[in-house]
Amino acid sequence: MSQRYYNQMWADAQHELSDLLAEELPAEPLSPQKDRVVFVQRVATLYVRYIQICRKLVEVHDLLLHPQKRRVVRASLDAVMGRVLELKNEMVEKEFSEYHYMDDILYALKLTPAKLEIPIPHYFLNDVSKTAQDRKGMLMDIFKMMEAIKSLDSVTLEEMTQEEAIKIIQSAERARQGRLRAKLLQEISRSKRKDAETADTISAAICIQKAWRSYIQRRKTQHEERIFLGMVMDSKYLEPCPDEIAVLAAEADTRIKQKEYEEAYQKSVQLVVNELREMEAYDMSLTLKSQIQQWFFECRNATGAFPEYPSEEDGGSSLIFEEKTPEQLKTEIDENEEKPISRNYSSKSKKTEGKEKLKKGVEAEEEAGLKMLPSAFLPDLEAGNKVYTDVWKNRDESENFSQKHEVELIKEEMRKVVEAEVRVQVDEQMRQELAEMKLAVDKDKGVKPKTNAKKKKGSKSGKKKEKDLTADRSLESLCQELVEQGLLKQTNNVRMQDYLGEYSYLGTTLRQNDIEPMPSLSDVRQVLSLYAVLPLGSPAVHEKAPLIKALLLVGPSGVGKKMLVHAICQETGSTLFDLSPLNTAGKYPGKDGLAMMLHMVFKVARLLQPSVILIEDAEKMFYKKTPAAETELDPKRLKKNLPELLKLIKGEDRVLVIGTTKDPHSADVESLCKMYTKIILIPRPDYSSRYVLWKKLIMKEGGEVTFALDLSSLAKNSDGYTPGHMVQAIRSVLTKKRILQQARKPLTAREFIPALAKLDPVFQEEEEALKSWYAKTPLGKKRIKAAAGKEEELPPPPKGKTTKTKKKK
Length: 809
Ligand SMILES: Nc1ncnc2c1ncn2[C@@H]1O[C@H](COP(=O)(O)OP(=O)(O)OP(=O)(O)O)[C@@H](O)[C@H]1O
What we know:
By secondary structure, the chain is mostly helical. Helices cover about 60% and strands about 5% of the residues. It has 33 helices and six strands. It has helices spanning about 5-25, 35-65, 65-95, 105-110, 125, 130-155, 160-195, 200-230, 235-240, 240-280, 280-305, 325-340, 350-370, 380-390, 405-440, 455-460, 475-485, 505-510, 520-535, 540-545, 560-570, 580-585, 590-605, 640-645, 670-675, 685-700, 710-715, 725-735, 735-740, 750-755, 765-775, 780-790, 800-809; strands spanning about 490, 550-555, 575-580, 610-615, 655-660, 680. Helix 26 (about 685-700) crosses helix 27 (about 710-715). The two termini are about 60 Å apart. Bound molecules: adenosine-5'-triphosphate. Adenosine-5'-triphosphate binds next to helix 21 and helix 28.
């Protein structure tokens, strides 16, 4: 597509965004909503609309050439993704469920279910810093080296047992005898053929030709008929058409150009900064100094004393030139000294404030009605929208056909950067000057000049610092050790889109009839894209969106828990660590060994971020009672240390712990839920998902889906089986020989049934048990409470819920 197309798409997205912002931030704040259903419906509609904008911005950012525009788009994209996460969180808080069904909204907005897929920006993998690239390269080298060593080990003859050697010799000997026998048979048949030459070869050939030609023609006509009736796709449409190939080539070309333009932009920025430093920095410092001196005297005239110079953390002299009177400023600085506050929108104090408010708010909410939680992304969205309107919306670009950067804009931007640099130097000088002036003027009055000692003390007493146990070791040696120990692993090449699953169309209808629907596999894919892929891929989203440090995937064997973990890593370029109890058993023994292992994993995970720490069989770590057979493995050894280390993960560390379990019952629910703040229940596939799974998985394994293969009855008969079971059944049926036979003997549904029958499906009881386990988790409990309250009366009273819940349980 042309650049004009992407520019137009960007304009559309911004237009929609400004409409949404007008709705979200009205001049008069919205009054609290008493009806929970209406409130959730409003949030869900906003959520769907933001996803549509997100989809557009992802496409625009991927293929727009102009480097400065791409920066603005990226900022908006991050903010939109963050807002989507906030809205999801809002729905979870108000509906007490991780899954939400929006078919009615899709219908109202005239959208297809595919439009609800969470888009994954290409920049997660493409726009990676040079250091990150180098580190990943180093890791790949280590993996290759380890593979080479392993393959060498497997070739060594020492490992071959006598039995294996005999088997090889035997099979070679049998092959030799077979070859001899075949040669003999060939000779015999050749001599027989010579004898038959006398027969009427011509009439025989005609007979065969007749039969063959009529067979071929019948097949051809049948196929043409099906194409004509629209039952089969014409093969010319199955392979990419020349236009499609041309579009893909153009896109690849655009991406190469993007890189060139970006380099040119970076060079230009450097040139402009140097030029500004040379030409304008001196004048800037003079103007600043005179302004600050003027402020000193104005303050003294107004208040009778020289002011306190704003500290560096408060922004230095930039604070002075915010539009305020000197008195206002003085009182503000005095207040600041008494109780240091943070001015940053996204600062931690604000976050904790938000959390406290959240807790208190739940009770107050019940009385006043429902309100949206405070947003960290709306200010960013507003700022992005303003930049678009002020700079880009009406920009005349008739001279910039190639869409290269604009130097004037760089100058405007960099002037602020250089000014900030100059301001730091000027502040230092002026602070000195002010101290001298105070000393000279106030000395006679016997006033001691104030120092910032108190503040500095405060800033020092920060959070507890982690001890670096491996300060003397390089990252490479740490990685090598972790790979050797099997704690750092290579990820499988699967993407989120490979996790198949169809949309469930009945969600809202069932909920309206008070039946809790089971989520579909496409819901699972969506939730994980939201909770894991977006925050791991985007630093901005990870820092400001509701922080998820650990999530737990619960589901029967074969529903794709591991596959999802690998897909998350692939989509975000994450490094995969494996701290599963079975994988760590016997490694790094003792208390110190354990501390060292965890320290190394978390240190490398932070340095190579984004990182995923996989804990398979997560229930083992929290066993109520360790089974006798496993006591030697000591599966609970990480139970204490791991949650503590999790506490040290902050917004800037893109590290996510993902636990998987198929047997959560054997774990202590409370401690499991304390560590894993998000719990995602993965169900067995429903009919429509099974239909898609059979079709795609058979094709993936080399099978051909023809009319002879009744996918519908196969999907119906495989109720209860997971995708893992299906893969097993398909692999056992589709042997190399069977694949070759397909042309004359097409696959049928019946062939897969015996293979399936050998496997145990997920029984209804097992699924019910998982559901009832989920009801014991914090969110499950809340949902039951809310449902019980709803049954009693509306709105639900805070008292009396517990009794009802108990009854239900
Ligand atoms: N939705 C899906 N789409 C395509 N393939 C799937 C899907 N779910 C699972 N699979 C395939 O099924 C097989 C089993 O999946 P996986 O090992 O991830 O399951 P699991 O839930 O981790 O099992 P377990 O609990 O036994 O470890 C894999 O080959 C995987 O590729």
